[in-house]
Specification:
binds zinc ion, 123 residues, single chain, two-stranded antiparallel sheet, His-Me finger endonuclease fold, mainly alpha, 46% helix
Length: 123
């Protein structure tokens, strides 16, 4: 098993915002390699030519990773756990939050304009 630097682990953790890419369970960063924590999964197993490159590495619960083994694809395991896609990254989660704040602001603004316009029509 490859050794990862703290910086690499942080990047891997942020790729799914700490969620197991196989079942969606959430792990805090500091439970890396602990019994009920997470470890780094090679989405495409090394036995099948998967690399140590960042885009092949994900957070996985230790039991999830062990049961996936080298034979199943990550997609198959996700499907059997009812997950459609890889959980969003920390960046995506923040971006989505920002988008909703913007949508809220635009809606309030539009409602305000609409309210103003309709109140003018009445008078
Ligand atoms: Zn899991």
């Amino acid at each position: 098993m490859a050794d990862f630097s703290d910086e690499q682990l942080q990047k891997i953790w942020e790729r799914t915002n700490g969620k197991c890419h196989l079942c969606g369970a959430w792990h805090t960063f500091d439970t890396y390699a602990q019994d009920d924590g997470w470890e780094v999964d090679h989405s495409k197993p090394q036995a099948k030519g998967g690399s140590d490159h960042m885009n092949n590495l994900y957070v996985a619960c230790i039991p999830c990773n062990r049961s996936k083994g080298d034979q199943l694809s990550a997609r198959e395991v996700r499907k059997s756990n009812g997950l459609q896609t890889i959980p969003p990254s920390t960046k995506e989660v923040r971006r989505t939050r920002k988008i909703w704040v913007c949508v809220g602001a635009v809606c309030c603004f539009a409602l305000g304009i609409f309210g103003l316009a309709s109140s003018r029509e009445v008078s």
